[in-house]
Amino acid sequence: xxxxxxxxxxxxxxxxxxxxxxxxxxxxxxxxxxxxxxxxxxxxxxxxxxxxxxxxxxxxxxxxxxxxx
Length: 69
Hints:
The chain is mainly β.
C-alpha cells in the first residue's frame, strides 16, 4: 500500500464524483472526527485531506487515495 506525506496532492472518489485535495494530517491511531471513531494504525494510517475546491476536510485510508504526480 502506498504511503502519503503531508503536502501530497491526492484524488479520491466521493458521492459527488472525483475530488482532489492536499493531505494536511496523518493519523496512526484511532481518532474521533465529525462524531465518528476512525480506525488507524502505524500499518494502516488515515489521512486528513483538504479539498481543493472547498474548505471541506475529509478523512480516508490510503487505499482510497491516488497520488497526483
